[in-house]
Amino acid sequence: MNTHLNLNHINQQTVLTVYAHADDEVLPAAGTLRLMSQAGWNVHCLILTEGNLSSSLVKGTRHQEAEDAGKIIGATYEFYALEECNFSTQAVIKVVEEAIKNSHPDLIITHAPQPEKYGHRDHEVCAIAVSNVATRRNIPLWYSAPPVFLRGFEPNFFVDITSVIEEKIAAIGCYESETNKTFMQLDAILVLSRFWARELGQKEGYFEAFEISRQWVDASFFTALAQSKNKLKNSMVF
């Protein structure tokens, strides 16, 4: 198994995302998931809760909104009904273990661990539980950027989503019940995507940021890297 993310040449692989609430998956990673889907990955999103404790006045629509977003980014969804703000790490571990048996993921993406005083309690518990499972099962793991609070998040992997920024915006827009939140607004989405571009010194484009917690590559990764560099050198010869 080679988990190097080559979005142009890739065998059939599966990415499993695990998030506390529906919409947590598209805010930080819709563009990346869309690119992976386009490249032939199976994209499976696991949502732990119903989202009924949201401050939104609209209730009971999150499942359909998620399914609509999935059509845009090329993902399938699986929903659980853990009790918001009250589920345990053990409950999440059990759910994730079951999902791994069913989907056999090559990569897992989840919330970045953040102390509760900076972020959402559910995000923190989810991150701890998923990290536990990924470590024990030796599965590559990426943490996605928090939508608001960046304290403690140290990205070391960035994905250029410029080609699919419209799909990202559309996927987030599917969550109409959550549009009252400031970080769901178009300007906030674009500003954060441009922020990550500027972190890389890019004057143009839109990016998503991740922190690689665990990842491994086999020898073919280095062969492919060497070949890509040779092709680049050859293309620059006049």
From TrEMBL:
One Pfam family, short name: PIG-L
Gene3D superfamilies (UniProt xref): LmbE-like
InterPro entries in the record: GlcNAc_PI_deacetylase-related (IPR003737), LmbE-like_dom_sf (IPR024078)
One of the record's GO molecular function terms: hydrolase activity, acting on carbon-nitrogen (but not peptide) bonds, in linear amides
PANTHER family cross-referenced by the UniProt entry: N-ACETYLGLUCOSAMINYL-PHOSPHATIDYLINOSITOL DE-N-ACETYLASE, N-ACETYLGLUCOSAMINYL-PHOSPHATIDYLINOSITOL DE-N-ACETYLASE-RELATED
Protein name as annotated: PIG-L family deacetylase
Organism the protein comes from: Halotia branconii CENA392
Taxonomic placement: Bacteria, Bacillati, Cyanobacteriota, Cyanophyceae, Nostocales
